[in-house]
Amino acid sequence: FSACGTYFVRFLRLGIITGFVYWVLCGPYHAWLFDDVYPALTENLTVERTAFFIRVGLYIAFALPLFFFNMLFDYAKIRAVVEDRRSMIGAIAASWRFIRRQPIAVWSLYKINAFLFLIVIGLYYLAAPGGSANLSAFAIGQLYIVLRVIVRLQFAASQTALFQGRLAHA
């Protein structure tokens, strides 16, 4: 409980910053991309394939900053705990420096973890019964929740191991 009390206020401050950034990305930025940019780029198109690739490009333009900030805030949490940082802005800045110095390792690990998450989602999609409410449907749903938690914990553990291994904080 002492550790929870120690980090609660720190993570609350980090959560406010994180929430604001995600709100900007998922609100105004997403609306700008898909309500303003997409119609302007596809206004006079006659080929549906071109419009499709423009939309895919805009989804990439939306996803990349989302992934980056997810990674940035994950490493900020790690730095806050491992280094016992009080300043969350300092933890974010330190996180940015770590990502900038170790880009290949950080992005590779993120892609591996994201792929593992997609596997769990795909398995659930294949195994989930459609609309039936029985014991097997309940069990599959619970297994999915457990696997998502395991993947999230593995995500944090692997990022922490990478951070400690690269900066000798073991």
Outline the fold blueprint.
Layout: H1 2-42, H2 48-82, H3 88-101, H4 103-127, H5 135-167
Helix pairs in contact: 1-2, 2-3, 2-5, 4-5
Structure description:
87% of the residues lie in helices and 0% in strands. Helix 2 packs across helix 3, helix 2 crosses helix 5 and helix 4 runs antiparallel to helix 5. The two termini are 24 Å apart. With 170 residues, the protein is mainly α.
Features:
170 residues; mainly alpha; 5 helices
Proportion in β-strands: under 5%
Characterize the main sheet: none
Helix content: over 70%
Count of DSSP E strands?
A: 0
Task: Give me the number of helical elements.
Answer: 5
Which regions are unreliable across 5 or more consecutive residues at pLDDT < 50?
none
Q: Which structural category fits the helices and strands?
A: mainly alpha
Taking the alpha carbons of the first and last residues, their distance comes to: 24 Å
Shape: globular
Q: Over the alpha carbons, how many angstroms does the gyration radius reach?
A: 20 Å
Average pLDDT works out at: 90
Helix and strand sequence: HHHHH
